[in-house]
Automatic annotation (TrEMBL), chain A:
<dbReference type="Pfam" id="PF00005">
    <property type="entry name" value="ABC_tran"/>
</dbReference>
<keyword id="KW-0536">Nodulation</keyword>
<dbReference type="InterPro" id="IPR050763">
    <property type="entry name" value="ABC_transporter_ATP-binding"/>
</dbReference>
<keyword id="KW-0067">ATP-binding</keyword>
<dbReference type="GO" id="GO:0016887">
    <property type="term" value="F:ATP hydrolysis activity"/>
</dbReference>
<feature type="domain" description="ABC transporter">
    <location>
        <begin position="2"/>
        <end position="236"/>
    </location>
</feature>
<protein>
    <submittedName>
        <fullName>ATP-binding cassette domain-containing protein</fullName>
    </submittedName>
</protein>
<keyword id="KW-0813">Transport</keyword>
<dbReference type="InterPro" id="IPR003439">
    <property type="entry name" value="ABC_transporter-like_ATP-bd"/>
</dbReference>
TrEMBL record, chain B:
<feature type="transmembrane region" description="Helical">
    <location>
        <begin position="271"/>
        <end position="294"/>
    </location>
</feature>
<feature type="transmembrane region" description="Helical">
    <location>
        <begin position="21"/>
        <end position="44"/>
    </location>
</feature>
<dbReference type="InterPro" id="IPR013525">
    <property type="entry name" value="ABC2_TM"/>
</dbReference>
<feature type="transmembrane region" description="Helical">
    <location>
        <begin position="185"/>
        <end position="203"/>
    </location>
</feature>
<feature type="domain" description="ABC-2 type transporter transmembrane">
    <location>
        <begin position="99"/>
        <end position="375"/>
    </location>
</feature>
<keyword id="KW-1133">Transmembrane helix</keyword>
<feature type="transmembrane region" description="Helical">
    <location>
        <begin position="233"/>
        <end position="251"/>
    </location>
</feature>
<dbReference type="GO" id="GO:0140359">
    <property type="term" value="F:ABC-type transporter activity"/>
</dbReference>
<keyword id="KW-0472">Membrane</keyword>
Length: 247, 389
């Protein structure tokens, strides 16, 4: 379970202060897939970075399974599986070694790591490249390796930043069914995307973000009713307030 | 602790799969150093031998005024030739290393048994002129002494009466120390290699990883940032020490093959082990300092631009000692670079390092390493470290 309450974060760049996140609040329950939807620069990645302890919020708090992120960052990191926007696969290690490295950093023993890798490689269909060095991997192979690496310790909560970026249709489909499987096992999943269809196809609920703020929260149907629009893309454009900026 | 080793072993595996970097990093030093030793050794050796043994061509102005002196010079393997018009220019332009000028009143003063004036023109800033100058000077003194003795005998005096004081020379330098003089560049090379020998690796595992954006997922694992950093430092130290081990072994072999007096430098196994022990704190200092720089820099490029300055640091004590030689004192073993320089010189000169010197050296070296480690750890905890782009 992830609970985010009134997060604020700003950056200073060359004299100017940019308010990246302004009072963001939402919750993600166990057994639920929550989509974080917003245009580029909406503050999704910054929000997620505060969630997985890489950044400290200026204001507000984040709890993972009831544990405060600021006070017990290590406990929180043990309970989180994180796929950052930058995949950061080590290209001179094989996919298996990449995953095992993170397994060891999560303090897992060798046998557990082997079992987990076998299971993840099976669900993510990684068999043909598991023991190849990551140099020359396709985008999909890199993403799969990074996802397996993020989930090697079987975390209760999974945070994925733009997981389907650059993936082909079949890989995306397989990834979706994989995430649904995790949800059905009772995991709490938060994932971000800037593509409405992506979120609609997978999420139980969605949080629409724009300009560092939450614009709307609800199931796709609630949001349709709320805006009175039928097409999900129109719903997103309306909620994110993109019409004004485009006009 | 386990995380430190996990990170260190991953970094080493990652590094050793990058064959080219490893070959360049590990083998270039061990191959280059013997080249320098054997090469310069051979060069100096052959130069000295030619200058000492070959016929020295000496331009003499006014040779006609002193035929006996010219004959004496020629009997000592010095070929007398006509001097150029302008001797000063000729010497400055290195036409001849030294020019002898026989004064116009030479003959007159000679006949009156007064010191007959001759003049040697040379350039003291030219290393190359030292041996020819000394050869000519030596022959002139010999000639002067011989004639003086003959004159004394002629007058019925003992030739020894003109020698009021007899000077004897007693050099207390040990043979090892004398050879050590040939090796003043050796400490610099060893310190430089231990200081920034694994710079490429150190910068890559922090600034490089950040640039490749793989630091973000790494820092999202439960492993403590300090542990991750320590693992990277450990990997770089192990790699650095491996490189130094190869360099020291290469030294041992190349001194055995080197020509002349260098051949007598004995890098025995205990000496080699002590050399490595002396360099260990330097490896730690270099690695932690570079980690500090890499964690603070925005990019690999920025981190690398510090290298040219860092390369000059190890040479500083050598320069200071050259201008202002100071006696060996205990405080020197606490100053980084100077301390390494003194310790290495002592080892190469075959001198005993006292336990107090070892203690001060090791304590100060590791204390500085620890201090830099703490500073680097602070930088590693900065928010901006994990965030790239």
């Amino acid at each position: 379970m992830i609970h985010i309450d009134d997060l604020h974060k700003s950056f200073r760049t060359r004299g100017a202060t940019v308010q990246a996140v302004r009072g963001v609040s939402f919750s993600a329950r166990d057994g639920e897939i929550l989509g974080l939807l917003g245009p580029n620069g909406a503050g999704k990645t910054t929000t997620l970075r505060m969630l997985y302890t890489l950044m400290a919020p200026e204001q507000g708090r984040v709890e993972v399974d009831g544990v405060d992120v600021q006070q017990h960052p290590t406990t929180v990191r043990q309970r989180l599986g994180v796929l950052p926007d930058a995949r950061g696969i080590y290209k001179r290690l094989t996919a298996r070694e990449n995953i095992a490295y993170f397994g060891r950093l999560h303090d897992l023993d060798a046998r557990t790591i082997d079992t987990r890798i076998a299971a993840l490689a099976d669900t993510l269909a990684m068999g043909d490249f598991l023991d190849r060095r990551a140099e020359g991997f396709s985008q999909g192979q890199r993403t799969k390796t990074a996802i397996a690496r993020a989930l090697v310790h079987n975390p209760r909560n999974v945070v994925l930043d733009e997981p389907t970026n650059g993936l082909d249709v079949m890989t995306t489909r397989r990834l979706r069914s994989f995430l649904r499987g995790l949800r059905d096992d009772g995991h709490c999943i938060v994932f971000s995307s800037h593509i409405m269809q992506e979120v609609a196809a997978l999420c139980d609920r969605m949080v629409v973000m724009a300009r560092g703020e939450v614009q709307a929260i609800g199931t796709p149907d609630t949001l349709r009713r709320q805006t009175g629009l039928d097409d999900l893309e129109d719903v997103f454009v309306r909620l994110a307030g993109l019409e004004e900026s485009a006009a | 602790m386990r995380a430190i080793w996990t990170v260190a072993s991953k970094e080493l595996v990652d590094l050793f799969r990058d064959r080219k970097t490893v070959v360049l990093g590990l083998l270039l030093g061990p191959l280059l150093m013997p080249g320098i030793i054997l090469g310069t050794g051979a060069l100096v050796e052959s130069k000295v031998r030619t200058q000492l043994e070959s016929t020295l061509v000496l331009p003499v102005a006014g040779a006609g005024r002193a035929p006996n002196l010219v004959a004496f010079l020629e009997s000592r393997n010095i070929e007398v030739v006509e001097a150029p018009e302008n001797t000063v220019v000729a010497v400055r332009e290195q036409v001849a290393p030294v020019v002898l000028h026989i004064a116009p009143d030479y003959a007159a003063r000679w006949r009156d048994s007064l010191p007959a004036p001759v003049e040697l023109t040379y350039d003291s800033s030219l290393q190359d002129a030292q041996i020819p100058l000394q050869r000519v000077h030596q022959v002139l003194r010999e000639y002067s002494a011989t004639v003086a003795s003959l004159r004394a005998l002629q007058r019925g005096q003992s030739p020894l009466s003109s020698q009021a004081v007899q000077v004897a020379w007693r050099d207390v330098a040990t043979p090892e120390a004398r050879r050590g003089m040939l090796l003043t560049f050796l400490p610099y090379l060893l310190i430089l290699f231990s200081f920034i020998g694994s710079a490429a690796l150190v910068i890559d595992v922090t600034a490089g990883e950040r640039e490749r954006q793989s630091l973000e997922p790494l820092l999202a694992t439960p492993a403590a940032r300090t542990a991750i950093m320590s693992g990277k430092i450990l990997a770089a130290c192990l790699f650095g020490m491996l490189g130094l081990l190869l360099i020291v072994l290469a030294f041992k072999v190349s001194f055995q093959l080197a020509p002349g007096p260098l051949q007598l430098v004995d890098v025995s196994l205990p000496v080699a082990a002590q050399l490595l022990l002396v360099l260990l704190p330097m490896v730690l200092i270099g690695t932690t300092l570079l980690t500090l720089i890499a964690a603070g820099a925005r990019s690999v490029k920025e981190a690398q631009s510090y290298l040219s300055v860092l390369m000059l640091l190890p040479i500083a004590p050598t320069l200071i000692l050259m201008v202002n030689p100071v006696k060996n004192q205990l405080w020197q073993f606490s100053v980084p670079f100077l301390a390494q320089n003194q310790m290495l010189l002592k080892l190469i000169r075959g001198e005993v390092i006292s336990p107090a010197e070892w203690a001060v050296y090791m304590l100060c070296g590791f204390a500085l390493g620890l201090f830099l480690w703490l500073l680097a750890a602070r930088l590693y905890h900065r928010e901006s470290l994990g965030v790239s782009g």
